[in-house]
Amino acid sequence: MTTPLTVLGLETSCDETAAAVVRLDRDGRAEILAEALYSQLDEHRAFGGVVPEIAARAHVERLDRLVLEAVERAGCGFAGLDGVAATAGPGLIGGVIVGLVTGKALASALQKPFLAINHLEGHALTARLTDGIGFPYLLFLASGGHTQLLIVEDVGRYRRIGTTLDDALGEAFDKTAKLLGLGFPGGPAVEAAARAGRAEAFDLPRPLVGRPGCDFSLAGLKTAVRLAGEAKAPLGEQDVADLCAAFQEAVGAIVADRVGRALDQLQAAFPGQEERLVIAGGVAANAALRARLEALCAERGARLVAPPARLCTDNAAMIAHAGALRLARGERHGLDAEARPRWPLDEESATILGSGRKGAKA
Ligand code: KG4
Ligand code: ZN
Questions:
Q1: Ligand 1 close to Cβ of residue 143 (< 6 A)
Q2: Does residue 157 sit in the same domain as residue 272?
């Protein structure tokens, strides 16, 4: 289809219910016309994590209104849309189905093309929406559900070169916070506590650092935090701060090592190209981690792109944007498109590595 294209996007794969309208211009530049988002954090807080059934119900209750709000604010009306895009996975299946069915119903009623979007592709392409960054680049995606290093070569061409063998990075923050009696979500709580802590007070392991490859393993670090805490129990406020600081320091060392190796691979695959690193996902909000990656990039002469926090975490603008890019390439998907709880961006490497073990969190 010819640009400009105006696309409505829906996101319901985890605990954010969101709708947004994005316009893709002729020169490939994209603009967010409107965004409407409801964060379910308060509904899950009491349970110390996201409860899939509560999430799905909240999506059902909120999505219609958010769609109306986004389209109204965009000023284009439903008639002005060129397509409807919805996250089709990966994610919590109940929520994915809510967004997918809503998107299909809208597209069908409006007689517009429908696009079933991989949520990870939304994250992978966000830096083009916010910073107009060129291909190729390395994406470090770290959230509560994902820990991935991907070489983004083009729309639809992603090479996964690293993932987690066990826990996701955000999950490691959340579990550490839970263990130490800090709130949910754990990342911001651990970061805040770590500010008053001394990282050298505890000696924690740095799994896989110095080893070849770009994979992560975080379960051992989580266990080490628990053992260190138990050995020092009862923990005072300063002990908790120290343990958080030591945990964050270990995570920083692990991330710097893995991302450094991934940048080496990017360089080897595209010699002479400017090295570009894009960070995304809730964990990318961590200031200590950002500082670490800034230092790494400065050292290598690489360019670091960090989209604003609200577009690093789950949002619908990235889904609308990915939908518009695919629509511009002449794609449209059938109303039989399936909801996929697991959907690796790089299907080939998932087959080679075995998608089972690395599954949902990979
Ligand atoms: O991308 P996101 O908002 O949602 C998904 O998981 O999809 O990421 C949430 C995750 C949680 O695990 C949360 O603890 C973590 O990101 N997080 C952080 C920080 N803010 C959020 N982790 C470390 N430091 C932070 N400041
Ligand atoms: Zn996400």
A1: yes
A2: yes
